[in-house]
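Entry for the shared binder. Reason: the reviewer on the internal report wants the predicted structure included alongside the sequence.
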Amino acid sequence: MIVRDVASTAGTPRHVCGDGWDSKRLVVAGDSIGFSLHDTTVTEGSELELQYQHHVEANYCFSGEGEVVDLSSGETFEVRPGSVYVLDKHDRHVIRAIRGDLRLVCVFTPALAGGETHTSAGGYEPIAPER
């Protein structure tokens, strides 16, 4: 059994920040369960252009209001408490926090190691397989 909380993750190597975002990685690849789980904040007024070429990501919003834009179709979708969006096709997208900080529970597969930050392409590099 793994038991962790956001408060004890803050300030550790599993707490990663970038321009307009903050991520506390509660479950990571080293936990050997096949996915990672993060408590992520996108700061109000922030707009992030991202694309996870090596990962599938599911996002559940529990606070704040924003929108996600699918850059291939131009469609814009509301993101608010109780909504989920899944980047199942490595979708290039923009996430915007419009009212309040956007708070998300994010699940990545394959799992992140825990200390990654976004590359210049807006994603994460794959983890090298263990031998």
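Summary line for the report: The chain has a mean pLDDT of 92.
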